[in-house]
């Protein structure tokens, strides 16, 4: 294409003149007025109360220390795990449980504890459970205190996918915390558009840093994705009496 050189020169000159005038106009503004040009006043973030040691005011409470009304058995019906005071415990053999509510992008807080009796138990048999994001992607729950196992299967791992950055485990019998930021995968029809990502803090220590999830958790074989929408959280019955308490979720949504 042949360029109209006089026209191009004219347009470049006008652009340069506009930039010069803008700079000159800025010179006439006070520093406060210049700074105000890059201030963004809308949208205004909603107020959220976050008392120390309590769930944020906009959180969905999945266990309040009273009952399992927010949970159900994997195939439906009442969850059979046992509530003990302010916590609940896996009842081995009754199966996994899932939240009644489905979620996509979330901030998740979970506190968990493994039994003190570890005699004869090692590796993956030492008091094992798991937290499945959208019923598919497992963050491992395991007594990993002085317990040798494959690192992509220890506490804080994206199970069988990504090794935690460090081992932040407490001794058995002590309460531990997971704070999880989860960005769900995105699909267009059956095709993966964006993989899922997860950040995990174990007892306040970063162990997964915006880690790409490779697909659905598999015990045997490689992970892969299948299209899905929002889905429940799932807690695993691995045959051990692991306890949980103070579980809450905040749904991550863009500013309106």
From TrEMBL:
InterPro entries, per database record: AL/BT2_dom
Single GO term (MF): hydrolase activity
Domain of life according to the entry: Bacteria
Pfam families (UniProt xref): 3keto-disac_hyd
Domain 3-keto-alpha-glucoside-1,2-lyase/3-keto-2-hydroxy-glucal hydratase: 59-250
Keywords, alphabetical: Signal
Signal sequence, start to end: 1-25
Name of the protein in its database record: DUF1080 domain-containing protein
Organism name: Alteromonas pelagimontana
Organism ancestry: Bacteria, Pseudomonadati, Pseudomonadota, Gammaproteobacteria, Alteromonadales
């Amino acid at each position: 294409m042949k360029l109209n050189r006089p026209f191009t020169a004219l347009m470049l000159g006008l652009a340069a003149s506009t930039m010069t005038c803008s700079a000159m106009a800025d010179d006439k503004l006070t520093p406060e007025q210049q700074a105000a040009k890059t201030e963004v006043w809308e949208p205004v973030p909603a107020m959220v109360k976050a008392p120390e040691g309590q769930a944020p005011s906009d959180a969905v409470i999945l266990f309040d220390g009273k009952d399992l009304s927010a949970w159900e058995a994997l195939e439906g019906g009442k969850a059979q795990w046992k509530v003990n005071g302010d916590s609940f415990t896996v009842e081995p053999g009754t199966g996994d449980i899932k939240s009644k509510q489905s979620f996509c992008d979330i901030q998740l807080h979970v506190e968990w504890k493994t039994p003190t009796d570890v005699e004869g138990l090692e590796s993956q048999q030492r008091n094992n459970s798991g937290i499945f994001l959208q019923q598919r992607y497992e963050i491992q729950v395991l007594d990993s205190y002085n317990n040798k196992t494959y690192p992509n299967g220890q506490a804080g791992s994206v199970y069988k996918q990504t090794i935690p950055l460090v081992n932040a485990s407490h001794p058995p019998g002590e309460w531990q915390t997971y704070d999880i930021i989860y960005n769900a995968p995105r699909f267009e029809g059956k095709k993966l558009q964006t993989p899922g990502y997860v950040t995990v803090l174990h007892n306040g220590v970063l162990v997964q840093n915006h880690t790409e999830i490779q697909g659905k958790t598999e015990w045997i074989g490689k992970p892969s994705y299948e299209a899905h929408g929002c889905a429940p959280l799932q807690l695993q019955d691995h045959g051990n009496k692991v306890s949980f308490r103070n579980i809450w979720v905040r749904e991550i949504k863009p500013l309106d």
